[in-house]
Design brief:
The protein is α+β, with helices and mostly antiparallel strands. The chain has one domain: 2-Layer Sandwich (Endonuclease, Chain A), CATH 3.30.870. Helix content is 25%, strand content 21%. The protein is built from 13 helices and 19 strands. The strands form three sheets. Strands 6-5-4-7-8-10-3-11-18-17-16-12-13-14-19 form a 15-stranded mixed β-sheet, sandwiched between helices. The protein has a two-stranded antiparallel sheet with strand order 1-2. Strands 9-15 form a two-stranded parallel ribbon. Helix 6 packs parallel to helix 7 and helix 7 runs parallel beside helix 8. The protein is globular. It starts with 14 loop residues before the first strand and ends in a 5-residue tail after the last helix. The mean pLDDT is 91.
C-alpha cells in the first residue's frame, strides 16, 4: 500500500500592496537559506549524533498522526518487514481513523502478522495503583500473534523508600516510538503521542493537545537503533525469536532536514534497576543527551524561545532560561492547567519556583516572559513537550521539563534543523505558526513575526489565559512534620537519576 502523508496546510504570505491603490504587490519574504546547523547541535554525546538528510512531517493533533501511522503500518506486508513499538501506554481496540474498523491496532497487527510481518513491542509495566493505567491487555494481545512478541517492561529505577506509595519501582519507561520497515523503507514516528484514544479529542471530556513527528531518512535509523538496544538488553528478550538484524535502506528522501535524536536513561550503576539484568549495558552510566540538546539550544537562542510543556518543574532548565533572557526579546510558555497536573501533588509550588526564578517574582506577563495555560479544565490538556528557538530550530519529544524527563526515566526527543534550501518558511517557523494559530484561534500567517504576534499571548482571549503564580497545593500524602515535602519530591515524585 502506498504511503499517505497528512501535512499541515502550507503557509503562503498575504500579498502586500506597495502603495495604496497600487496594482503591484510584494509579499512577506520566505525565510533565507541557513547552512549553520552547528550552532544548534551540541557536540556528540553518548550515542547521539546529527543525521542527514531527512524528511520530517509534524503533527499537532492526533487525527493526522494516527492516520499516517495506519498508512505506515500497512506498508509492512511480507516476511522481512517489521513493526516495532516503544510506549508508555498502548490501547489496541479503538479506531485510529474514526469510523474505520480496520484501523485498530488489533486489526492492523493481526493483518500484518498473517503476512509474516515481525511485530515487537516494549510497553511500560504500569503501576496501576498509581496511574490507573494497565498495558496487560496489549501485551497479551501481541504475544498471542503468531509473529508477535511483547515485553511488559518494569526494568526501571527501583523504588521502595516511600512504602506508602506502594511502588516496588519508581522509574518509568516514557519513550513513544513507532518504527515500520516495509515497502516504503524505514519510517519512524516519535514525540509526545502514545497510541491512545485520548489523543483524539472526541474520546472523553478533555482530550490531549500533543506534538509528534514522522521521520524518513537517516534519523529513522537512529530510532531503530534505540529500539534494538533496549530490546536486546532486556533479559526477557531471550524468550523470543532473535530480532532481525537487517533493515531496508533509508528512504530516498528529497528533503534536507538535519536531525539529532536525544535520549534519557538513568545512571544504572548508581541507581539499582528493578526486574533484574543489571545495569543498562548500552548506557550504564546513563544518557542525558535529550537534556543536552535542550540546554545547548537555550544558550544559542538570540531572539525568542517558545515552549509547550506538561509540567515545568526542572530548575536547571529554569536557570538556563534565566541566563538566556538578556539575549531574548520574548520567552513564551504554554503549560497544562495546574488542576490537570494535580497528580504531581506539588505542581503549584514547583511551578512557582520555576517562574519566579525567571521573573524575579514580578506578575506575569513581564516585558519578556509570558506564561499561559488553558482557561478551563475541560479544554485539551497540554501534553506536548516542544521547543521552538528563533524560528530556526525545534525540539520535539517525550521528555517533560522535570528531572524525571531529563535524568531518571527512559525518554527520546529529536532536534530538527532546516537548511531551507527550498526557500520557504523554516520547519520550526511553520510549526510555531501552526501551533500559535491553533491555540489563539488566528490564521497561521498572522503569526509570522514571533515578537509582534506575541501580543496575542500577552493579552490572550478565548480559551487561553495568563498563568497566575498563586495558590496552594492540595494537602500532601504525608504531614510535613512526618515526611518533608522535599523528601517526597526528591525520592518519589521527581527524582534525580544521575
Amino acid at each position: 500500500m502506498a504511503l499517505n502523508t497528512t501535512r499541515l496546510p502550507p503557509i503562503v504570505p498575504d500579498p502586500v500592496k506597495i502603495k495604496p491603490r497600487g496594482t503591484n504587490t510584494v509579499v512577506h519574504p520566505f525565510d533565507p537559506v541557513d547552512l549553520n546547523a552547528s550552532v544548534w547541535f551540541p557536540a556528540a554525546i553518548g550515542k547521539s549524533s546529527v543525521r542527514s538528510p531527512n524528511e520530517v512531517v509534524p503533527y499537532i493533533d492526533g487525527h493526522p498522526a494516527f492516520k499516517d501511522m495506519v498508512a505506515a503500518i500497512r506498508t509492512a506486508n511480507k516476511r522481512g518487514h517489521f513493526i516495532y513499538l516503544l510506549g508508555w501506554r498502548l490501547i489496541t481496540d479503538f479506531a485510529l481513523i474514526p469510523g474505520d474498523g480496520t484501523s485498530t491496532i488489533e486489526a492492523l497487527f493481526k493483518a500484518a502478522s498473517s503476512r509474516n510481518v515481525d511485530i515487537r513491542a516494549m510497553l511500560y509495566h504500569q503501576n496501576t495503583k498509581l496511574s490507573g493505567e494497565d498495558n496487560t491487555p496489549a501485551i497479551t494481545f501481541i504475544n498471542s500473534l503468531s509473529n508477535g512478541a511483547a515485553i511488559h517492561d518494569d526494568r526501571v529505577v527501583k523504588g521502595g523508600l516511600l512504602v506508602e506509595l506502594k511502588a516496588s519501582y519508581l522509574g518509568v519507561h516514557h519513550q513513544k516510538v513507532l518504527i515500520v520497515n516495509g515497502a516504503e523503507g524505514l519510517i519512524a514516528f516519535q514525540g509526545g503521542m502514545d497510541i491512545n484514544s485520548d489523543r483524539l479529542q472526541f474520546s472523553g471530556p478533555i482530550g490531549l493537545h500533543d506534538v509528534h513527528v514522522r521521520l524518513r531518512g537517516l534519523a529513522a535509523g537512529s530510532l531503530w537503533a534505540l529500539f534494538i538496544e533496549r530490546w536486546k538488553d532486556h533479559p526477557q528478550s531471550v524468550k523470543f525469536q532473535p530480532i532481525p538484524a537487517q533493515v531496508t535502506g533509508p528512504a530516498n528522501v528529497t528533503d534536507d532536514l538535519q536531525v539529532e535524536i536525544g535520549r534519557t536513561y538513568p545512571n544504572s550503576t548508581k541507581h539499582t534497576l528493578f526486574g533484574g539484568g543489571g545495569p543498562y549495558h548500552f548506557a550504564a552510566a546513563g544518557d542525558q543527551s535529550a537534556k543536552v540538546l535542550v540546554l545547548n539550544a537555550i544558550a544559542r537562542a538570540k531572539n525568542f524561545i517558545y515552549i509547550e510543556d506538561q509540567y515545568l518543574f526542572d530548575m536547571s532548565i529554569s536557570n538556563a532560561l534565566k541566563a538566556a533572557l538578556p539575549n531574548l526579546k520574548k520567552l513564551v510558555i504554554l503549560i497544562t492547567l495546574s488542576v490537570q497536573a494535580a497528580d504531581q501533588h506539588q505542581t503549584i509550588s514547583r511551578r512557582r519556583d520555576f517562574i519566579d526564578n525567571l521573573t524575579g517574582k514580578a506578575p506575569l506577563p513581564t516585558s519578556k516572559v509570558i506564561v499561559c495555560q488553558n482557561k478551563f479544565p475541560d479544554l485539551p490538556f497540554v501534553h506536548s513537550k516542544t521547543f521552538i528557538f528563533d524560528d530556526k530550530f525545534a525540539i520535539i519529544g517525550s521528555a517533560n521539563i522535570n528531572r524525571r524527563g531529563y535524568t531518571h526515566d527512559s525518554e527520546q526527543n529529536a532536534g530538527i534543523f532546516d537548511t531551507n534550501k527550498k526557500k520557504r518558511f523554516f520547519f520550526a517557523h511553520e510549526l510555531r505558526m501552526h501551533l500559535w494559530a491553533k491555540h489563539l484561534s488566528k490564521r497561521p500567517i498572522d503569526m509570522v513575526d514571533p515578537i509582534a504576534s506575541s501580543v496575542h499571548w500577552t493579552k490572550p482571549v478565548g480559551k487561553i489565559v495568563t498563568y497566575v503564580v498563586a495558590g496552594q497545593d492540595p494537602p500532601q500524602p504525608f504531614p510535613e512534620n512526618i515526611v518533608p515535602n522535599d523528601l517526597i519530591w526528591n525520592i518519589g515524585l521527581d527524582p534525580d537519576g544521575t
